Amino acid sequence: MLDKLALIPLMPFLGFLLNGLFGRRLGKTFVSIVGVGTAFASAILGSYATWEYVHTFHDGERHVDVVYQWFLSGGVGTDIAFQLDPLSIVMLMVVTWVGSLIHLYSVGYMHEEDGYFRYFSYLNLFLAMMLILILGSSYLFAFVGWEGVGLCSYLLIGYYYQTDFAPAAGKKAFVVNRIGDFGFLLAMFLMFMAFGSVDFGAVEKGAIGVGPGALVTGICVLMFVGACGKSAQMPLYVWLPDAMAGPTPVSALIHAATMVTAGVYLVVRSNVLFRMSPTAMAIVAFIGALTALFAATIGVAQNDIKKVLAYSTVSQLGFMFIAAGVGAYVAAIFHLVTHAFFKACLFLGSGSVIHAMGGEQDIRKMGGLRKHIPVTHWTFAIATFAIAGFPLAAGFFSKDEILASALATPYFASLGKVVWAMGTVAALFTAFYMYRLYYLTFAGEFRGTHEQEHHLHESPKTMTIPLIVLASLSAVGGLIGIPHLLGHSLHIPHVLEHWLEPVLTKVAGLRDGAFAVAEQPEIIVMAGSTILALAGWWFAKSKYATRGTAADEAFHENMPGLASTWENKYWVDELYDAIVVKPLHGFSTICWKVFDAIIDGLLSLAAYFIAALGDIIRFFQTGNVRNYALMLFLGVVVFIWVYV
Amino acid sequence: MFEYLIFFTFAAIAVIFSAIVVIHRNPVVSALALVVSFFSLAVMYVLLDAPFMAALQVIVYAGAIMVLFLFVIMLLNLAHTEEPITRPIQQFLGITAAASFAITIIYYLCKAAVLHTGGPAEFVSDARAIGVSMFEAYIFPFEAVSILLLAAIVGALILSQRTSAITEAKDGGAR
Amino acid sequence: MIPTSWFLILGAILFSLGVLGVLTRRNGITIFMSIELMVNAVNLTFIAYARELGSLHGLMWVFFIMAVAAAEAAVGLAIFIALYRHRETIDVDEANLMHW
Amino acid sequence: MSFDTPDILLNLIKIGIVLGLILNVTPIMVWVERRGSALIQDRPGPNRIGPLGLIQAMADAAKFILKEDLVPAQAHKVLYNLAPMFGLIPAVTTCAAIPFARGFTIPDAFTYNGVIGALLVAGAVANFLFGVIALRVTAHFGAKPGATRFNQWIGKIVGVALIATAPVLFGLFAWFRSVGSVAMPLGLGGRYFEPIIADVSIGILLIFALSSLGVYGLATAGWASANKFSMIGAVRASAQMISYELALTLSAVGVLMSAGTLQLTEVVYRQSGTFVLFDMIPLPAWNVFPMFVGFIVFWVASFAETNRLPFDFAEAEAEIVAGYHTEYSSMKFALFFMAEYMAMGTISALMATLFLGGWDVPYWNEPATFVGFLASFGAFLAKTTFFLMVFVWVRWTVPRLKYDLLMKLGWKVFLPLALLNMVIVAILIPLGWI
After folding, report:
1. Domain that holds residue C23
2. Is the peptide bond before A249 cis (omega within 30 degrees of 0)?
3. What SS3 class is residue C41?
4. Do B37 and C37 touch (CB under 8 A)?
5. What is the pTM of this model?
6. ipTM surpassing 0.90, yes or no?
7. What residue spans of A365-460 are helical by DSSP H?
8. Which domain holds residue B23?
9. C42 contacts in chain A (CB < 8 Å)
10. Distance (Å) of CA B41 to CA B10, B44, C41, D365
11. How many domains are contained in chain B?
12. Domain assignment present for C60
């Protein structure tokens, strides 16, 4: 299997081809079997490959499986090659298994849709591309997957192409992502220029050879621009909330669990480069913290169930970047994994809610759903506890580790404290808006129409099973990363840290990729998180558990400025429109009007000349075929006499 | 000697029947004469040690293409179309051009002694050699030709459709 | 062994006859047949040279020419059918709309 | 291309055999067709001329020759007269490339042995008995009312002739036995006799090339008759034949792929011997087993190629009088008639060669001797006859299709099936199954 890693992405790709080419004709059953089957096949193959990897490589070496040489030009080139190492494997497991569960969920969720085969073929293609992204052994090949997932994201956001907003949202996602991709491309050009290769291993070696400096900082910053685009960080986060126009499973798979974490993966993958450049790390950490706080505040004032989750995703991605920025790469991946579990669960749960509500997404019209859809409710509750950082749930350990690392970062102590403070506030907001969402949706009285209430029903098995699996993972997923503080006394190792150790290459003259947090800050952070989570819970419960939306109205009355700022997302979209889109549009218009006139004028002149010439020559065009033939053959005769 | 007899017999047949193709007023006769001409060309191919091509010549030209011609002539009932001579200058120039072309090319063929290169080399042209050549050196043109044929099929279908998009537009969809 | 030049001259004669047909006839089908005649004359030349040079390339060309001729016959005849449907004639002098 | 006298002689013998066979297909098949149709339709059929109507065909021939030869006034005279000959050319020429028996080395001398003796004696006795029976039958039926003088005369002549040959055969036996062996005359001894007229390297292509010319006979006839029915028949025939030729040729490709050559002698040699199915059942290594799909396609397409029912659209008498030969009479009509039956004979022989192992006698390794030659020749004739019989059987059993169905069937069913056959063969060959 290790020499056939290409099979893992090929399975869903096969599904994409089958569904895309024959799906319409062969019906929904076929599409479901192929779509879900190939996803699970890829998951099983991936697991098998992992099993073989574990038995072949004991020290977490990097295994590269070259399929063929992609191109080689002037000594610069790269291969089509897949790699397995501990980091890839973590991503592989998350992507394939969570992806498969979401495929399964989609069978139930999308069943009534017309473009069922279209949906599944895109989803399969996404999975294939995501697997290329995480299994590719070079930046360039990963970039193929990177662009591929961007394309699938675009296609799936615009899935409801009959509506106005979905294609626009897809376009927005694509364009914003392009800005990030541009950064990534430039980073790769720099790599090609400086190291002559974009292979992960070669780049690492090359960077170590070059040493810290402006070059590495440049590469890192540019790469982070790419990560910002893909992972929705400030200032390129604006596409993600809009991306909720796509079907809910898509939001769960692409815009919560897998694709948006690609930026984090990229940063962790390039940890050697980042460790060489504290400047770049500081930027990453600060942007992450800013995003986390910023998005969390917006999340408080949103009323669309998916929008809340979307901002929550942005905020949580910010947390991951905090971790990556302060040098706690294990914490970043840890949070990535737990986030994949609970956020996928939340999105799928919200999908189930929307399904039950018959398409309604506004939480002000929900409420009291607890008794109508119990399975959804319980899984949603567990995931909420997990994300809020309730003690012992998955999010608790990971978020706690991030904040503790930020507090104790050896790279930039003072900025670390700032980041920690911002992160802590964001965590408080997180707990608050998540419980607000939970209570508004599930507690209190039903606020929708009578018809909707009559319609309420639990979702089918294909939807609840993934929910249950993901909820259990949210509950226990944190156990792969028990903090040292507890671990020492309980004799439980930090599994993930141990597993990822080989990825965080030790380099002379550089700090290690993982650092131990002293007990004291850890205790502070842990206690702080617990208190914050409980505070957020208590506050949300007191406001929303019974009184419905009254608290929101009060908020609007008491603090109209803040409320509308949050509700309108700090007017960022409007701001971008004013400072980027409008001027660009104006400039383009000027170019169009002025240059068009000049160039067109020149061309018209040329055309006029040609036309005048044509007026003379056209008398040869008699319309009679035989005349043409005659001219041709006379020409041939003359030609022979002249030239032979 | 025997070969020469065959060559001259069939060369004469080819030329005579080709002349009939060009001159005869009746397209059916022209088509049948062309078949005979093609058949004698196939004989030429046999004389040139290329029996495979000879068989192909008969199958493709005589067996398929000319049947198609005949079919179309019969379908459109073109046998008795009048063709009064118009455009005498064109006619005259045409004959002149053809004649001068023939004189030119035969003159140069006789003049240029490219043909006496010291005896023909070894020439194997059985089906195996042709197949190997076609599927190795000429695989790309071969595939290209297959696409060309597909395009030709589609083109022919669309052109000969009785209710094509063009005619429908012309009839105002009143059919 | 018959000298290659004789085949070439035969090919030249047939080709010239084809030229004559194309230039002097007005019946579309006959013109088309003359073109086929020219194509075959070229084929003969190709094969003659193939034997002379002892290489298969000439034969391959003939093969492809045959395929192209088949495609051409199909499309060309379809064009004539379409022409006949529209104008009740296949006299090429009548089909002279494509001019200034 | 050098011949010496024995070569020419051998070739003449081969040509004689093949021509004798192919020319005799028509009279025999006419009788079979008429008696067969009668059998199928439960009526007596022609039974007046000769015993069992056996020489009905000769009477038909005489009738054709004696009829008036009509040429329509509007007909294109030259082509009208040439058309029947066009039709005959492919039918007669194609059989030149079909091997009809196992080749053998001509011995230097004929040696007497018991088998030959027994055969000669048995032949003498049988001839005598048949002669007596013929005379008795003639006498019996001659006494009945309605018997013609002509019939009685024929019967008597046949009877006497049979009886007369009996002593000749017996005398031959006695002479041969006493002489012991006879040297082969004319230097034929030691030569290898390959029973095929033209063993060319492009055998099958030659056959397809020549048979593709068959359509010109029909087309020319239909057009030259200046008759609308004839014309429709001709147009139909040309469309039908180029359509089905494709399926026919493609279905034979599988055979050529497995043989690796176009030469028909090789194709047949490859089919002699056996292959063992599932390690248990030895089957003759005939192509029909692995290429059953191709065989069926070829078989059906052969009906279309020979314009036989259910595909006889060129002459569909219920729709277009008699199709392309509506205006033909007398010997020209007879030529079309002969061409049809000869084409049937040729294509049956081709089918036997390509798919049923040609002259291969199943489960027997034919020796390269005269006995092997005779046995294999017999096998070849038997297989060809089988296909000819099926032609007749189908004609009187299956009704004519609709024309659009014919085209649909050819392009949408048989062409894909022929391609499928190719694919199957292409899979089986590397697996080593063929």
Report:
1. 4-87
2. no
3. helix
4. yes
5. 0.59
6. no
7. 374-388, 394-408, 413-442, 450-455
8. 2-137
9. none
10. 8, 5, 9, 43
11. 1
12. yes
